[in-house]
Amino acid sequence: MLRIYFGRFLGVIFICFASFGANFSYAEQVVVYSARIEKLIKPMFDSFTKETGISVKFVTDKAGVLLAKLRAEGKYTPADMLITTDAGNLWEAVQVGLLAPVESGKLEVNIPSYLRDPQKKWFGLSVRARTIVYNTDKVNPAELSTYEDLANSKWQGRICLRTSKKVYNQSLVAMMIAEHGKEKTEQIVSGWVANLATDPLSNDTKAMEFVAAGKCDVTIVNSYYYGRLIEKIPNLPLAIFWPNQDGSGVHVNISGAGIIKNTKNKQSAVMLLEFLSSKKAQKLFTDINMEYPVNPKISPDSIVAEWGGFKQNRMNVVKAGELQTEAVKLMDRVGYR
Amino acid sequence: MKSEGSNSRGNSYCLSGSLQTVLGWRYIPVIVAILVLIPVGTVMLSFLSPAGEIWQHLVETTLSRLLLNSFWLALGVATCSAVLGVSLAWFTAVYDFPGRKIFSWGLLLPLAFPAYVLAFVTLGLFDFTGPVQTSLRSWFGTEPFWFPNIRSRMGVIIVMTLAFYPYVYLLARNAFLTQGKRSLEAAQSLGLNSAQGFFKVALPMARPWIASGVMLVLMETLADFGTVAVFNYDTFTTAIYKAWFSMFSLSAASQLASLLIIIIFVLIVIEQKFRSRIRYAETKQSSRMAPIILTGWKSWAVAGLASATLFFAFLLPITQLFIWAIDSFAEEFNQRYLGFLWHSLTLSGLSALLICVISTLMIYSVRRHPDMVSRMAVRIATIGYALPGVVLAVGIYIPLAWVDNWFSQMAMQLFSIEMGFLFQGTFVVMLIAYMTRFMAVGYNPIDSAMQRVTFSIDEASMGLGVSGWGMLQKVHLPILKGGIFTAATLVFVDVMKEMPITLMTRPFGWDTLSVRIFEMTSEGEWEQAALPAVVLVLTGLIPIIMLTRQAEK
User: Fold this and answer.
1) Is residue B321 within 8 Å of residue B532, measured between CB atoms?
2) How many Cβ contacts (< 8 angstroms) between chains A and B?
3) What part of B 201-240 touches A (C-beta under 8 Å)?
């Protein structure tokens, strides 16, 4: 008797909770976990909602935390899509089995193959070029050539770097390992460290400010940080140099996305992903944050276009993830903080 | 102690009897400890999954440097905060000097500043590219001249001291206000001068408060990531972040964090061991005597110290933030800020309430039943503050998701309903998470206040038939009021500043001011972050000013 009552009681509780917690209208919205901050992603979502009527619910956090969250939630996760600001975390998401492959002709047309996962589990949405910025009063651009050259003793006491704890530098070094092997890369990075004018800095903007103030002559930054700084203070003696143009090309990373394996809403999520690679959204990526579009049919923002075209490193960015741990260890070994 | 059960049943307060039998004071600390042990235990379970490779790498490369950095940082910040906090508390409580009235509450204002915000503002001002050094260069030419390098160990210690000294100041001042002058009088009657009186009488008597404050500073320093990241000063916490976010090993990160918990736990036990040898008792709030008036160079020296602290820890950074905030106001401000503000206030207010109520119950319980289990439970219950917030956040999230998944599965099997998560993304979870993190912040001030209530008061009240709930309500609460107010303020401000737990557990769309700061700073837009930072600091000032009002009464 008691057991029956208890069972009914449980049933009622479940139904109560379920009606509170459940979301029956899955088809009408896509849930996104985004490491890309609201300001840099919401305009694209709004545009998508306007076009399709499908709403987008999202939450932002660090990529590493979002991965932990997705793993904990497992099968019942509310998330349909993960967006990160680097290839490394997408690679890791694949390693721990969070992402599902997507077959889409549109994505394959819109996104060049080196900017998406060979297993089709993630796709680059914007390109972030990590390049050299130099002080125009102190450096003749003819002096500059490659990332590797910054290890040359002629740059002794002349370079500033952002901390190795930032994923952008980890990706850069990982791609160098992929190209040159561990040993040679270690020599190059320890050359950089030997040439530092001051302790590594906490962000790209700070590094450029140090270059502009004359503490050092060159640094390595993502181009959109340069764009933002110049937009704010136009008369700084700074200019962009595109390195490795005779070799493998400028190191690029991506901000990209993948569909969560346990999504209950794959169709809409794929629609969103395709939309993000479309002309309309790609234009927003470059206009809002001065990043480069992945879609080659879209020309970059006018300010960005002024910096000139350049050859990108076309090695698949998946290497940045594969070799990230290796890169971190290497930088620890040579004392790059 | 044995007689107390029958006493409570005998007394006329119905509530007290029933509450005591239903809840049992005795079990409150244990329940809270279990609640805190779940996330902490989750973090410690990481030892089950090996991360030997990363350990080996750390040991071979950076670990010794990081440990040394953490050690010096903790030592430096704890010492400097203790010296600065205690001396300012002593001067403002006992002496009169120019501006004393303003300083006595003004020196609390830096509490409202998140340490990482103070760090990026200070660095922005005094670094090589900052306005100070830039002006100096333009006045004296561009040749290299000597200027202390702020991106150094010394720089981090100074900034963290400026951010954390108010914990010590607030608690020590509470002690000195109520017993400072009496202890001086006692010392003088023994023929000691005021310096001797301070060191021999007042300081030892204020020990539980000072120790609580320094403990909070120590835990905050060791668990900090944001501030040291601005300075690129690598500590043990840096290794935790690196293992997790760069080398993709949450288990290595959790193992490192577990070590941090163990270190702090040992420190707490040692501190309590030392403390328990001394009995602190003050039967009543001492009557306020007129403050001792300082004259001549002494008064100016004291005023100088207080103004320098206030200037660097609050006035200068808030001015800089304001200037930046004005620049970004048009672009950044919109009506959503009301929402951010409301969310921040709600979370902080409710957490402060929850933590203060539970702390008080716990403290009372340990007082009634000071056995080994309760004492241990209390120490466990307050350990969450020692963990980097982001690690604790995951420790909370994993078991929570597990429970939610279990429920979902049951719902599916029993009723074939597809239901969403019950707990995740709800308010309750956030409150419990804050509780596990900030228990120490609420507990320490109230506990210090409780230590001043002599047991003879308890005995007297029991003799009058007041015990249990009634004793707490009628006898202890009025005496604890100051401590509870202090605790509530500290928790309120700390929750407002909190970032990782808020980020991870917030419901969709439930952004707070600190989430907004995260959004801006994570893309390196420090100046854009000024607006939410200013709003956050100004909001934090409200409870602080209320607190000082209350204390001055």
Assistant:
1) no
2) 155
3) 229-232, 234, 238
The encoded tokens of residue B59 equal 């040991």
Q: What is the CA radius of gyration of chain A?
A: 23
Residue A214 touches chain B, beta carbons under 8 Å: yes
Distances in Å between the Cα of B177 and the Cα atoms of B90, B293, B429, B510 are: 8, 16, 38, 41
B/e letters for B479-491, b = 16+ CB within 10 Å, e = fewer, are bbebbbbbbbbbb
**Would you write out chain B's pLDDT as a tens digit for each of its 553 residues?**
333 433 433 343 444 444 454 456 778 899 999 999 999 999 999 888 888 889 999 999 999 999 999 999 999 999 999 999 999 999 998 889 999 989 988 999 999 999 999 999 999 999 988 888 888 888 887 655 678 888 999 999 999 999 999 999 999 998 888 776 777 777 888 888 878 888 888 888 888 889 989 999 999 999 999 999 999 999 999 999 999 999 999 999 999 999 988 988 888 888 877 766 555 555 455 555 677 888 888 899 999 999 999 999 999 999 999 999 998 888 888 888 999 999 999 999 999 999 999 999 999 888 888 888 888 899 899 999 988 889 999 999 999 888 888 888 888 888 877 666 777 777 888 999 999 999 999 999 999 888 878 788 888 888 888 877 788 888 888 888 888 999 999 999 999 999 999 999 998 888 999 999 999 888 877 888 899 999 999 999 988 888 877 766 5
Query: Is the ipTM, as predicted for this complex, more than 0.85?
Result: yes
Question: Measured between alpha carbons, how far is B135 from B230 in angstroms, rounded to an integer?
Answer: 23
Which of A65, A201, A213 is opposite residue B390, by nearest beta carbon? A65
Q: Which residues of B touch A60 (CB under 8 A)?
A: 503, 515, 518-519
Of the candidates B242, B408, B525, which has its C-beta nearest A76's C-beta? B408
Contact residues on chain B for A328, CB-CB shorter than 8 A: 242, 246-247
